[in-house]
Design brief:
globular, 2 strands, mainly alpha, two-stranded parallel sheet, 146 residues, Rossmann fold
Length: 146
């Protein structure tokens, strides 16, 4: 995927919620495909985030790099297709640190974050809401592991 809809919203919420966390963490987003590299998030994602009080307009899409598997302790994915692709790309030791975001954050067991790209405003609003829930769950889970 290209890193202009779901991942920027997830990154935006996780970064926004970081201020509420006693556990420091670093967030970044990347796509498995590089066709949007260097571009800002989709204007619809920027708008729905803005309406929620978050500015994601400064983010730029990038493709996952091999170094990401060493740089980050955890890699969270929007859906099973990305999960499978990342597990194929990752070195063996990193594969266990890749998970579905909604599942890992306790939002929905085996849940996938739907891709709103071909949808309308309600689809982006739903993804933004789920990204907020994921960020809240991320904080809860990181706090229990600290």
């Amino acid at each position: 995927m290209g890193n202009i809809c779901r991942s920027p919203l997830l990154e935006g919420w996780a970064a926004h919620r970081r201020a509420d966390s006693a556990v420091p963490y670093q967030v970044d987003s990347a796509g498995t495909g590089g066709w949007h590299a260097g571009l800002p998030p989709d204007p619809r994602a920027i708008e729905v985030a803005r309406q929620a009080g978050i500015d994601i307009s400064g983010q730029r899409a990038r493709q996952v790099q091999f170094a990401d598997f060493q740089r980050f302790d955890l890699v969270l994915c929007a859906d099973r297709a990305n999960l499978a692709e990342l597990r194929m790309l990752a070195p063996g030791a990193a594969r266990g640190r890749i998970a579905l975001v909604l599942d890992w954050c306790g939002v929905k067991r085996n849940g996938e974050l739907p891709d709103p790209y071909h949808g309308g405003p309600r689809d982006f609003e739903r993804v933004c809401s789920l990204a907020r829930e994921a960020a809240d769950g991320l904080l809860r889970r990181l706090a229990t592991q600290a």
